[in-house]
Design a protein that fits this description.
With about 160 residues, the chain is mainly α. About 70% of the residues lie in helices and about 10% in strands. α1 crosses α2 and α1 runs antiparallel to α3.
Length: about 160
Amino acid sequence: MSLRMERSPRHNQEPIKTKRAGLRNANTVHGKNYARVKMELTKIAEAIESKITLLEKARAFLKKRGETKAKTIADYEKAIALAIVKLKNNAIAEWETFSTEKLPTTLIEKTAKGMCYQEKLDMEVAESDYKSLIVSINAIEAELNAYQSIFRHMQET
């Protein structure tokens, strides 16, 4: 087997043996630069740690969003109940420039819901925030799984 020699990038050094000549560099693993693989593993490990930290924060934030969601649901239910009682007892004579006196019983609940539109909006926003955070957590978990798979694969090679 003949060795092919190339000139070193620095002309004052000895010629180096290249891969093309059929020899492997001592700093390679499976044809990959070991230092580069080690650096990539370090970056992937840092990304994994970052995702884990992000998940821990997101879980704590999810608890707060859950509490906000529960509170807005309770506020909405309470507001509806109060509005229904007030409408039945004619305690609310007018709403949005319309008379609520002599309101048919079948319309009391629908009218009460309409009167509590802001609480309903707050409840929907809180639920949307909660669900979007869950979706974000799932996305972070998927990224973490991908990084872990890459890390495992790079360790094996």
